[in-house]
Amino acid sequence: MDGPRSSLAIVVAAAGLGVRLESGLPKQYVPLLGIPVLQRTLSALSSCPRVDAIVVAVNDQDVEYCREEIRMERIGKVVRVTSGGDERALSVRNGLRALAEIGTWDLVGVHDGARPLITCEEIERATAALENDPSLDGVVLAVPSTDTMKIVDHTGLIIGTPDRRTLWRAQTPQIFRWEVLMEAYDVPEEVLLGATDDSSLVEARGGRVAVVAGSPENFKVTDRVDLRHAEQILAERRA
Question: How many C-beta neighbours within 10 Å does residue 210 have?
């Protein structure tokens, strides 16, 4: 697309507890080949030319620690570390508010702090898709489902089998036009708490959101199997 490049800010949601890792640490601080998961995530985002600014939302008690670590590691595109909330959507809302105090951007994305394997190529594909289609309000990195999915009731009884060709596994970052996401998050807290992801809030307002092909390697580190898998991928990338 010709014309000026769109500016892009990213909110990184990193206030989770990550109890499934059973490490004694929130998952975003667990070492991944010696470097905390969150640090790897922020470094990966900061290295991307398309990313202009990053706000990180962490647990309130971790704000000063993270600020100091980011300063020491010279992760230059992080413009603010702010307190998150008890739920992911509240952390994202706080991150968006922190961004709005600094300025405005053409595009704004939301990324999970525990997805350290994101690449600049994926972010480039997502932003290009938005720039090339003015009718879109947002895009979601995603991968097609390779598993057969089942719909079950509260007793565990299968009540449906959707066509897996229509099913994609959503990833992050999910990237939107600035005004669109700000308006989507300007809703009562109970609405935010019922949202499964950022795109669902935009969709609920009638927004047009498309999937953009992501990578199976851009998974969220939630348990020890994920951690071992991430270490293997990082080792291969270094080779």
Answer: 16
